[in-house]
Structure formats: C-alpha cells, structure tokens
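Possible regression after last week's pipeline update?

I re-ran a chain I had predicted before the update to compare outputs. Posting the input and the new output here so someone can diff against the archived version. Not blocking, just want to make sure nothing changed silently.
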Amino acid sequence: MKIKRFRIDNLYGRTIDIDLSKSVVVIFGHNGVGKTLTLNIMDAIYNFKFYKLLEIEFDKITITNSSQRNLYVLRTKENGYVQLEFKKTIDGLPIGIINADMLEHFAPENIRHITPSVVFDNKTKKTYSWNLYQESAEYIDILKKNLPKDLTIELLKVNVQIIHAQRLISLDNRTESSQKIRLFAKQMRQIIRDAAADSVAISHKLERTFPKRLLEQCSQNNSQALSSEDIAVKYADFIISFINLKTSGFVEGNLPSKELPFTANLRNDKTILNVIDLFLSDSIHKLEPLQEIAKKNKLFIESINSKLEGKKIEINPQDGFAVYPMNSKDAIPLHKLSSGEQNIINLFFDLIFNGKGKDIVLIDEPELSLHIDWLEKLLDDFVQITSQTKTSMLIATHSPDFIGSNIELTQNLR
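New output (post-update):
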C-alpha cells in the first residue's frame, strides 16, 4: 500500500507535512530542518524500530494511505514515562501502545542487559548495543509475533526500505562499501542462476511435450495459412529477445543468424513451417523468466555506464558484474574502485534489484561522494527506476544540483 501524505506535528517545534502523491518526491532544505529525521521516523514506524521513535520529540504523526485512511502515532506520557499510541482514528482507542519497558520485556531469554545500553547474547557469547540489537531480524520477528495483532497488520501494509547513501553502509549488515559491492556482485550471480534455472525447467517441460504438440499443431493448421513471412516476423522477435539477453549478461556466444535461410521449395512446406513456428514459440517461452531481469540489467548497466569515465560495467554469469577499463578485458577489482564509484553502483543495485515489493524507498542525501556531473543526472535516473519498479521514492537533499530542473518534484522544508 502506498503512503500519500506524511505529517509530523511539533517535531522539535516544527511541523513537517509532505505530499507523497508523486512517485518521486524530494524534500529540500538546510541542515537542521528535519529532512533526515523525517526519513528515519518513517523507517522506524514501518520497520519496527520503536526505540528510535521513543527518543524523538514530537506530538503527533498522521499517515494517510492510498485508501485515504489514516494512521496516527501519538507520543504521550504515562506516569512520567514516554509511550507511543497507535490509532486508526484520532479519538478512538489505540490499536497498540509501546513503551521502553515493553521493548525490554520482549527480549528473548538469551539476551541479558549488562548496562542499560549494552546486552550480552548467551548464544553467540557476544555483546551488542541494545539499540542495535533492537534492529536485528531476530528481535523484530519477536515484536511482530507479540505486538497487538491489529498494530502488526497495520504496519505490515506498507513496505519501507531506507538507504543512507552517504554512509556507504548497508543497514542490514553494517558492512562497508567495498564488502557491500562484492556482496551485490555475488547476489547478481545468484539472480542470473535462479532465472536460468527457471528457464531450464520450462525448457525440459516443453521438450517432453514437443512431439505431441507438434502433431496437434500440424493437424490444426491443415486448413490455416502459415506463411514463411509469419515465421520471419516471429524469428525477428526471437532475435531481439536474444540480443537483449546477451547485452544483459544472461547468454554468451555468437548471435543466431539474422534471417532464416529459406529456399524456394521450403517456403511452402507446411510441415517445415510448423516445426519452426513451434520451435520459435517454445524458444521465446523459455526466455521469459530472463526477460524481466534483463530489463533491470539493462537499466542498471545504462545508468552506471552513463557516469563512469574510461570504464564500463558489464554483467556476466561468472562475476555477477564487473568493471573494466575501456578497451581492456582485465576487470578492475571492485574494492579498488573509488568511493564515489562504489557508492553509485551500490545505490543503483539496491534500488533496481532490491526495491521490488517495496512501497516506498527512502534515500538520505545521495549527493555526497558524487561528482556534480553525476548529480545532475541522478534524479532523472531515479524517476526512470520508479517507472520500472513501480516503487515510490522519498529523497532528502540539500543540493540544488541534484534537483536541477525537477522543481515540480521538490518540497521545501523550512
């Protein structure tokens, strides 16, 4: 479900009111006006990081979804202690109340506090920041199972991802950018393998039934006109699909011939035409699992290569993706790329390949570590990505160069 409006009343004395009706929205303003804080608040609500909300001063959050229904988050005090009240109607009863004691109560038996801010895990025999542990998948799963059912259901309606681009760090595993880019290359390898496996499964199924289907088609086509021109059109579609897949790193080797070598006596041979027609239909069907990923690969390659200078990124089944100097077949080790190059590759990979199923992606200050030439193209790239992934974006920035001429996407925070 999409968020259409996000309002925070009395956020350290400010009111933040953001219209999210467009697929890409940029919030702009000087340091200290609440840009990053707004993103963190939305992330905290929908990714169950309640300890962050308890630490932030505000009166009320109003979230309007695409069904024009509201969710309210009120920060109140009970016996002098801060608590969060979640409501569907402002005057109604809460669907859930959360406070710090409750969050501690949900910690599993293997977690014990050494200090108020540090915990020890008896399973791993390691110490962790209590706040960091509250962002772990283990703890968030516990919250989802133990919070009031209506509250959990309401929060799971919106899938939110946050990317702190400037920190070059994945919020899931805190790996540094040089490790993250290698993890993404490994993920790309797996994406290719999974899609190829789906293609092979379809291929095996089609091969087993090919003789029967061919006989049925020949019988059905006895009274139908199947021409060599029809076959040529279908073959051209197959070649286009093959070229797209080769460009996207899914297939290797030489391209098939551009045209079928029909001789005069074969052009009217209905049996030959039926065999080729069914073969091409099956071939196109086999490639279908690869086509959706190929579109993303193409967008990823074009987006990155439009920014790299003297280098190019390519996708292949062995490396996932690799960066090469122009006119060279020797790949540059990914960890030796500049911080800006790693940042842009990590950012675009995250958005294109990990944004599926996300209702909104939050991006905090993507301009840092990036050259001004890249900045001027970045927002247009984001718009293109959202049109393909069907994901919305909320971006915080204080860079006019990033916004460029896209004033209609911008909302000023003052």
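Follow-up from reviewer: compared with the archived run. The chain has a mean pLDDT of 88. Marking as no regression found.
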